[in-house]
Amino acid sequence: MKKLKFGPIVMASAIAGLMATLIVYRMLARYAGSYLPPYVTWGISFLMLPGSLVAGCIGYFRSPDRTRAFFNAMILYLLAFDLYSFGWQKICKLQMAVVLGMLDMPFNSLDGETLTWAYFRRSYPFTVAIAIAQISGSILLLFRRTRLLGLIVIFPIMVNIILIDIFYRLHTWVLIHALVLTSGLLFLLVQYLPGLISFFFRSPDTLPLNAGKRLQWLLGALVVTIPLLLLATYRYPDLHPELTGKYKVEQLRINGEPMQVKRQTDSLLTTVYMDWQDDFVLEFNHYNNRYIGTYYFDEKSGHIQVQWRYPAGFKTQFEGTLERAGNKNFRFTGVLGTDSLQMQLLFVPEPK
User: Fold this and answer.
1) Based on the domain organization, do 149 and 272 belong to the same domain?
2) For labelling, which of 49, 95, 247, 274 has a CA lying 20 to 30 Å from the CA of 157?
3) What CATH number should be reported for the domain holding residue 256?
4) Considering only CA atoms, which of 179, 181, 154 is closest in space to residue 164?
């Protein structure tokens, strides 16, 4: 019998140890955190990793096959346990929670993590659907005949979680937890690799199609090219990309008099938005105090004019000239109603 290499055993024991560390810590912190000091919680949790590594090294020299099987089982059941727990915590509303006071904050003021949880908690049925997927995948892992199906079901769930953690900048430990679980999943999945390659790439296609090989190639080419041709001829809604953006109002002068916001109750112009479809918004110190309309811009002269549609019946004249004042900044000179208006528009980048 060919003896197993030492590397895979060490990898399996390391993955199992990391999974045990994170899962034990999460369970102790959530369910015993009120009476266990943090150092005790961390201490118990971190013992899992060296304990697993030592067990792997000893087991390799005694019985490599049994040791590999042991760590396969450890990874499998830890993965199932953790995802099963996550699923029920979602159903019980212990995940995707947001402080109620944050939900009334402006959209752009929320950090990525709060924004993510606010989005998911908006629909409890959707949260339950995610939970059911996690619970179902976990249960499939428990049975021999459905184990591979469970791994395949869970894999896209974990990839999606990792991408959300990365691109919405969730807490580092949340990302690490997801990466460790996914490494365990991949470790198990790789052991099915020969069968998966045979199934996906070598099995004959039994789907009946009333199309010959040439016609299939032609239809495939049309599928690939037609959407690109449609996009190439599409009139994009960003009609003036050089203007599109949010601008902070500085150096505001009304009828030649300098104006500045001193209190939250002041109703002075503070923000200007120029958006897709030539939407134009003037905001007066609060997002509830806005004029909304459509702007018309002459690129040659820099003349801009707005036709309002909100508030209803609001017809006050707004027009003037936009002049560039540095990188993406502008200087506006014009009128709002019967008042002359001068202001500096400072471009505000979108939050990342």
Assistant:
1) no
2) 49
3) 2.40.128
4) 179
Distance separating alpha carbons of residues 170 and 96, to the nearest angstrom: 12
Domain count, the chain: 2
Note down the domain range covering 312.
245-348
Q: What is the pLDDT of residues 51-92, one digit of tens each?
A: 988 888 888 788 888 888 899 999 999 999 999 999 999 999
SS3 319: strand
Sequence-distant (6+) residues with CB within 8 A of 68 are 4, 8, 9, 12
Query: Which residues make Cβ contacts (< 8 Å) with residue 110, sequence separation at least 6?
Result: 102, 118
Specify whether 258 is located in the same domain as 113: no
Instruction: Specify whether 162 is located in the same domain as 280.
Output: no
Return all residues near 216 (Cβ < 8 A) that are at least 6 apart.
209
* Selection from 202, 159, 163 nearest residue 183 by Cα: 159
For residues 14 and 148, membership in a common domain is answered with yes
Is 216 among the domain residues?
A: no
pTM for the structure as a whole: 0.85
Going by DSSP bridges, is the β-strand pair 279-283/257-259 parallel, antiparallel, or unpaired? unpaired
